[in-house]
Amino acid sequence: MSPDDLGGAVLRPDDPGYDAARVIWNGMIDRRPALIVQCSSAADVRAAVL
Question: Which residue(s) pair with 9 in the sheet?
Fold first, then answer.
């Protein structure tokens, strides 16, 4: 998957906005995924999963 294939953003740990994107409602959980895909369509979800 290439970031150019997606309509949404692809965030890596060094990218601006990564920390804000990984925050969830339960503050006791602090995960650091290798990649965050902010999908903007069903096609984005499909590309991210593949």
Answer: 38
